[in-house]
Write a structure and sequence with these properties.
single chain; elongated; 3 helices; mainly alpha
Length: 120
């Protein structure tokens, strides 16, 4: 193999930038879930006993679940970018798109898991 050969086995700059972008999406999603969404206050009716879902503790299981889902999709997108995606760039783009969509869905699912919420 020569230096300019496109079939070299070392990851190229494209793969590194995809891994960095995926890591940024992962960190931003986890920060949004655990520092913004989980500690949000819930708007509940003033009745006793409070209806189910009227507490911040109901968001923790959803946060743990979506953290695992986002981390798994992140790992899968990094594997795709490092292996098959090096020759098929559309796979890398698709993996990144799926990661971003799962991150957005995860934030929304955790936010809505305990009912209506107040603003940030």
């Amino acid at each position: 193999m020569t230096v300019g050969d496109s079939t070299a086995t070392s990851p190229g700059m494209g793969t590194r930038s995809v891994v960095i972008a995926a890591t940024v999406v992962l960190v931003a999603t986890l920060a949004a879930i655990w520092w913004l969404v989980v500690p949000m206050e819930v708007v509940c009716p003033a009745i006793y006993p409070a209806p189910p879902g009227c507490g911040g503790a109901e968001r923790r299981p959803a946060g743990v679940t979506w953290t695992g889902i986002v981390a798994a999709v992140y790992a899968l997108s990094v594997v795709v970018a490092s292996t098959w995606g090096r020759r098929r760039r559309w796979l890398t783009r698709a993996a990144m798109l799926v990661l971003v969509l799962v991150a957005i869905a995860g934030i929304g699912a955790v936010r809505g898991s305990a009912g209506s919420v107040t603003g940030y």
